[in-house]
Design a protein that fits this description.
The complex is a heterodimer. Chain A is mainly alpha-helical. Chain A starts with a helix and ends with a helix. Chain B has two helices and six strands. Chain B has a six-stranded antiparallel beta sheet with strand order 1-2-4-5-6-3. In chain B, strand 1 and strand 2 form a beta hairpin. The radius of gyration of chain B is 15 Å and the shape is globular. Chain B starts with a helix and ends in a 5-residue tail after the last strand. Classes of the chains: A mainly alpha, B alpha+beta. Chains A and B meet through helix 2 of A and strand 4 of B.
Chain lengths: ~90, ~140
C-alpha cells in the first residue's frame, strides 16, 4: 500500500514535536522551517531528514535538499511524498 | 588497527581500546575498563560504575572511527576532528568494571558537515546504552 501524504505529514510533525522538542506547537503546512517560522538549523534539518528516512525506509539524496524542498513543512511533506511514490513506497 | 592512528584523542581521554571493524559509515570498537581508572574512585566509592557521560564520549569516538572509515575508503577527505553536535542516549543498565564495552556506530545520514549516527554500547551482549548522536566536521578554513 502506497504511503499517503497524510502519513508523511504526520511523521514529519511527530519528528518536529518529539525529536526537536517543539511539543504543543501548531505546525501548519506553510510554516517556514528555515529563516522565520521555526528557524531550524542544519542539525535540526538533518534530524528531520534522517527521521523520515528511518520511518519510511527510503534514503533521500542530499543533493535534492534545498530551499525549494525544505522551505516549509508543506514543501518538505510534498517532496518526501513524491520521493516515496517514485520509489514505489 | 590502532585507535590513536584514527582518532585525535589521547589518554586519559581516549576511550577506544581496540578497533574491531571500520567500514565507510560504520564502526565497532571495544573499551576495556579495568576498574583501576581514576574516575572510578569517585563514581562511586565501593561500587564503581562507568559514568554515562563517558559512555556517550566513547560512542562519539566510535562514530569518529566510522568517519575515518569513509576517508580510508576514499569517500571523503582525510579525517578531521569531529565535534559532538548532538547526543540522545538511553541508559538501559549499568556497566560495572572490570568489563569490556562493545561500542557500535552506524551512520544514518549527513547534511553538509553534519553526520548523524545510531549508536549502542553492550557488555556481554547486554545493552547498556542506545541512541543517536551527530558529529560536526568543521571546514579546514
Amino acid at each position: 500500500v502506497a504511503t499517503t501524504r497524510e502519513q508523511v505529514a504526520e511523521a514529519v510533525r511527530e519528528i518536529i514535536r518529539v525529536d526537536l522538542k517543539f511539543e504543543g506547537l501548531e505546525l501548519p503546512d506553510d510554516l517556514q522551517l528555515v529563516g522565520g517560522g521555526l528557524a531550524l538549523d542544519s542539525l535540526d534539518l538533518l534530524m528531520i531528514v534522517t527521521g523520515v528516512e528511518k520511518r519510511f525506509g527510503h534514503k533521500i539524496s542530499q543533493k535534492k535538499l534545498g530551499r525549494d524542498t525544505m522551505g516549509t513543512i508543506g514543501a518538505f511533506v510534498d517532496f518526501t511524498h513524491r520521493e516515496l511514490a517514485e520509489a514505489g513506497k | 588497527m590502532d585507535p590513536a592512528a584514527m582518532l585525535p584523542h589521547r589518554p586519559p581521554f581516549l576511550f577506544v581500546s581496540r578497533v574491531v571493524l571500520v567500514q565507510p559509515g560504520c564502526a565497532e570498537a571495544q573499551w576495556r575498563v579495568t576498574g583501576s581508572e581514576d574516575f572510578l574512585r569517585g563514581h562511586f566509592p565501593g561500587r564503581p560504575l562507568v559514568p554515562g557521560v563517558l559512555l556517550g564520549e566513547a560512542l562519539a569516538q566510535t562514530a569518529g572511527l566510522a568517519l575515518a572509515g569513509e576517508a580510508l575508503a576514499g569517500a571523503r577527505e582525510p579525517a578531521r576532528m569531529g565535534m559532538l553536535a548532538q547526543i540522545d542516549l538511553r541508559f538501559r543498565s549499568a556497566a560495572e568494571p572490570p568489563c569490556t564495552i562493545v561500542l557500535r556506530a552506524q551512520g544514518i545520514g549527513s547534511i553538509g558537515s553534519l553526520h548523524r549516527f545510531d549508536v549502542s554500547a553492550l557488555v556481554d551482549d547486554r545493552c547498556v546504552a542506545t541512541g543517536s548522536l551527530a558529529l560536526s566536521v568543521p571546514d579546514r578554513s
